[in-house]
Design goal:
about 375 residues; mainly beta; 3 domains; 4-stranded antiparallel β-sheet; 31 strands
Length: about 375
């Protein structure tokens, strides 16, 4: 079954703050005896405050991950569990304590919540006590939304979430809208939403009164990196958001753009950006370090970029990026041993990487 846990008498929503820079959380308290005595207030988020809420109107999860008062609506297509602290009630299923199927959760008491990893729950793992993110392949028994697969890949977050690992992407544009240029780029698209078609990115544009709508291709100059959130708006400041996907776009000799979904690394000036293309994973930006003699030390690394951006690690073997630039090959391939959160690939899959002087990204998978 699906279990969403929330406080019993309070409901929540997000609104933009006065300067429009972020969403803030509003809490409305229900008076169970008098509907006219309900009240609403801004919630001050602290590090010890519960992380997740349920939007009263859309029934979408609200996440306040950073402790700075900024909240986002989670992608409604995400499948999994979000666990809060504090007093709560079960919205669905009266038999949470007796869960015995892989993929379901057991709420044993207010501090002990575990996920069953195997049938009969012979193996289980705590959800609320992890100090780092864990990636696991489990038998598919009763995990929300994971129908028809013998095994599934999940992320058990240190933030009290358990998420089915699925690819994210821009929606597919409507071909007729691209041809005419006079309609929204995809069904129900609104102003400044983006989509992709034939490796080209398009934007829906609407005038202020909503009478004119166009579908316009992005203008690409040389090579550009674009970031989008889970409602397909372009994002300039990534911050610590986890609802981000990235595309790298280049233009050919005929000024035609080619855009690729980033699953891997992009090297940009003195930084490298790592995205794996999974829902709710976001992108990580790191400053390139000046360490010319850096080596590979972890036997489990599979394609990890060194912090100086000069080498890739496969186990303890270092592969210099400069060597790939001089060898006339289109890509390299490797077989994943475990779930690979760098490139967004499940275990025991063959990964094809395209390597250039400023990118290491997945080009195909099998």
């Amino acid at each position: 079954g699906n279990y969403i846990i929330k406080e019993e008498t309070n409901v929540y929503a997000t609104i933009r703050d006065k300067d429009g820079s972020k969403n803030i959380l509003i809490e409305c308290t229900k008076d169970v005896n008098d509907d006219n005595n309900n009240s609403c207030k801004k919630v001050v988020i602290s590090e010890n405050f519960p992380t997740y809420y349920l939007d009263e109107k859309t029934k979408t999860i609200i996440s306040c991950p950073t402790g700075d008062g900024s909240c986002i609506l989670e992608d409604p297509t995400i499948k999994g569990y979000f666990i809060n602290s504090g007093p709560c009630i079960k919205l669905v299923d009266d038999n949470v304590n007796s869960c015995t199927t892989a993929g379901c959760i057991k709420v044993e008491n207010s501090t002990t919540i575990t996920l069953c990893l195997t049938d009969s729950c012979e193996e289980s793992i705590g959800i609320t006590s992890n100090t780092e993110n864990l990636y696991k392949t489990i038998t598919n028994g009763d995990f929300p939304g994971a129908n028809g697969n013998n095994s599934i890949s999940i992320k058990i977050g240190k933030d009290g979430s358990v998420i089915l690992l699925e690819d994210t992407s821009l929606p597919l544009c409507n071909e007729s809208s691209i041809s005419s240029g006079n309609n929204a780029c995809f069904a129900n698209a609104i102003n400044k939403q983006y989509c992709i078609y034939d490796k080209k990115i398009y934007e829906t544009k609407m005038d202020d009164d909503g009478t004119t709508t166009t579908c316009t291709g992005l203008t690409i100059s040389n090579k550009s990196i674009f970031y989008f959130d889970n409602v397909y708006n372009k994002v300039d400041d990534l911050g610590t958001r986890n609802d981000i996907m990235a595309y790298i776009c280049t233009s050919d000799e005929q000024s035609e753009s080619i855009c690729e979904h980033v699953k891997g690394y992009i090297i940009n000036n003195n930084q490298y950006i790592q995205c794996n293309g999974w829902k709710r994973e976001g992108c990580i930006i790191e400053t390139i370090q000046e360490s010319p003699d850096e080596t590979c030390t972890n036997e489990n690394d599979e394609g990890k970029l060194l912090s100086n951006s000069k080498g890739l690690c496969f186990g303890k073997e270092k592969n210099d990026i400069s060597d790939f630039e001089t060898i006339p090959i289109d890509y390299i391939a490797f077989l994943t041993k475990d779930i690979n959160p760098i490139y967004g690939i499940n275990s025991e899959k063959i990964v094809f990487l395209s390597i250039t002087e400023d990118s290491i990204i997945v080009t195909n998978e099998s």
